[in-house]
Design a protein that fits this description.
alpha+beta, 4-stranded antiparallel sheet, elongated
Length: 177
């Protein structure tokens, strides 16, 4: 698939977003240096991955308008509005692979609330390894919840053992990544 670009509305053609989720600027210089002069060649803008405990993490970009830096905008929302069908009531844009840093069009899809919450937790799961005291991996689980069910423990019990690096009866658990 070839990379294609579309202008981001409301910025007088100074910003564009590609179907790969890349954002580029046609502004000359940076910040307030000649903000309204168009450059000969565009340059890519690096987004910021914002981590918010207890909330959704997102890849965000701040765009300049009238010489002032604006509020950070989630790249996923720009992709939804420019490359997809826009906001659809009752539907949410989710990541196919669960990676919030991958805002390419082929990695985005609409989902209802139930699917969206399931997809959000899928991206947060970390595989859990069950190991012997000398480091030999006995079993691999998809998540702490799965490990808890198979080992007849609670998920919080598994997470606490991982956090404390507790070896009990010659067995310990750790995250794979």
């Amino acid at each position: 698939m070839a990379e294609m670009w579309r202008p981001i509305p409301g910025y007088d053609g100074f910003y564009e977003i590609s179907n790969f989720g890349e954002v580029r600027s046609w502004r000359r210089g940076g910040g307030n240096h000649e903000p309204d002069r168009r450059a000969e060649e565009p340059h890519l803008i690096a987004p910021h991955y914002r981590i918010r405990p207890g909330k959704k993490n997102s890849l965000e970009i701040a765009l300049y308008s009238d010489g002032r830096k604006g509020r950070p905008i989630p790249v996923k929302n720009l992709m939804r509005d420019i490359w997809m069908k826009g906001t659809i009531p009752g539907m949410y844009v989710t990541f196919v692979d669960g990676d919030a840093k991958n805002c390419a069009l082929h990695n985005l899809r609409y989902a209802d609330q139930r699917e969206a919450s399931k997809a959000r937790t899928l991206g947060q799961r970390k595989p859990v390894l069950k190991c012997t005291a000398d480091g030999e991996v006995i079993r691999i689980y998809k998540s702490a919840v799965e490990a808890a069910k198979k080992e007849f423990l609670t998920a919080s019990g598994i997470r606490n053992r991982i956090k404390r690096k507790a070896v009990i009866d010659g067995i310990y658990f750790k995250h794979d990544r």
